[in-house]
Amino acid sequence: MKRKMNPISYLWKKCLRNYRDYGISVFFKKAFLYLLYPLYRNQTYLIYSIDLSKHSITQTVPPPPEYTYRFIGTHEVELIDKIEKMEEWIGVRSKLVNGYKCLACLKEDVVAGFNIVAFDDIDIPLIKFKKKLRDGQCFSVQISVHPDYRSCGIGTTLRKEIFTNLRNMGYTRLYGGTQQQNDSNRRLSQKVGLRVFASINYRYILGLERHKVKRVKDVQKTA
Length: 223
Ligand SMILES: CC(C)(COP(=O)(O)OP(=O)(O)OC[C@H]1O[C@@H](n2cnc3c(N)ncnc32)[C@H](O)[C@@H]1OP(=O)(O)O)[C@@H](O)C(=O)NCCC(=O)NCCS
Description:
Elements: H1 7-22, H2 24-36, E1 40-51, E2 68-71, H3 77-86, H4 92-97, E3 101-107, E4 110-118, E5 121-124, E6 129-132, E7 137-145, H5 154-168, E8 173-179, H6 183-192, E9 195-205, E10 208-215, H7 216-222
Parallel strand pairs: 7-8
Antiparallel strand pairs: 1-8, 1-9, 2-3, 3-4, 4-7, 5-6, 9-10
Helix pairs in contact: 1-2
């Protein structure tokens, strides 16, 4: 069951995470935009995908041997709590109950990172985008590495492991999305062979909503 978080504590955790992940200028920009939320929103997401039958990632530096990578189950309450501490919005408990998979990178009982994958829909709440997936397709909801463990190859290994596991489970294509300004995730995606093929811009002004989808050529011009 999903536990309700006090809205003030939720907002505070969200602000801290944005500060930690993207720095002070993005923190202030996002805080300002949250204030405008009821009136105005403008978000661009890059959508990428990979053919799982063809992927091959060569890691120049092998991942440290003390980390293990495995899917976690609904009964692993402490690990789930740790993941929800890292990303306060994710609701991993209810996602696992609803058939999502969560691959975790563990160092003993520490969660160094995780990748959550959905099998029914592409669902990106920030841009109010939802699309049914076909057979053989899946969608990466979130990849995160704990700040203390970043830039040592865990993100790359999580991707490598999830691609192999999904392929072994019979999936042929993985989709994902990232905010245009998320440099580290864009670079990681490029490195592991996830190719951007579209961008979706969502704009909301005083109750009027609009989605604008651009194909990859346009994306390359604007990225
Ligand atoms: C994106 C993220 C998962 C990368 O994890 P990571 O373990 O640091 O990634 P790796 O160490 O495997 O690095 C992979 C590549 O990402 C890029 N990268 C990693 N950290 C970066 C940074 N701070 N700035 C720019 N590029 C970065 C590099 O190109 C790197 O390849 P290289 O080392 O060969 O140059 C991590 O930064 C993160 O959790 N960010 C916050 C959450 C997030 O934004 N998730 C994506 C939204 S779905």
